[in-house]
Amino acid sequence: xxxxxAWPAVYLxxxxxxxxxxxxxxxxxxAVVTLLLFLLLAAVFSPLAFPMSVGAAEARRRSAxxxxxxxxxxxxxxYCLRLRLRLAGRARRLHWVNIWRDPEAAEAVxxxxxxxxxxxxVVVGGRPHTNPAPAWVRRQLSAAxx
Length: 146
Hints:
- The protein is α+β, with helices and mostly antiparallel strands.
- It has 2 domains: 6-48; 50-143, 3-Layer(aba) Sandwich (Glutaredoxin), CATH 3.40.30.
- It contains 6 helices and 4 strands, in the order αααβαβαββα.
- It has helices at 6-24, 28-44, 56-66, 78-87, 103-112, 134-143, and strands at residues 70-73, 95-98, 121-124, 127-130.
- A 4-stranded mixed beta sheet has the order 2-1-3-4.
- β3 (121-124) and β4 (127-130) form a beta hairpin.
- α1 packs antiparallel against α2.
- The two termini are 25 Å apart.
- The mean pLDDT is 89.
- One of its GO terms (molecular function) is electron transfer activity.
- This is Glutaredoxin.
- Residues 70-127 form the Glutaredoxin domain.
């Protein structure tokens, strides 16, 4: 699945433009702070913030083999981003499924959330958990031996 760099590029270009304007107005410190803020936004919204997504069927297959949770997510979801950031490096050990790129995944999420595409929905051992606490997800990873 192709991952997009469009929004991070917009943040980088916009940040560079605003920082340049601040620098030319005689505020070099403000320019640096602005540029750092936009760089942070670009990093958070980049494909680097989330591990590569796989399809729902592949995620279920991998989870059955290694016992690791499956996380259904979508771009722009602040709760998904919160989960990802709180898990830090452990997030790469989960199986991430982007529901906007996989209709089967979106249907699976709707099926367990009263018709709503509420994410993150984390599936552990075949049981879905909607918007679980990051600490709970870390414990599930530990239990899976990851």
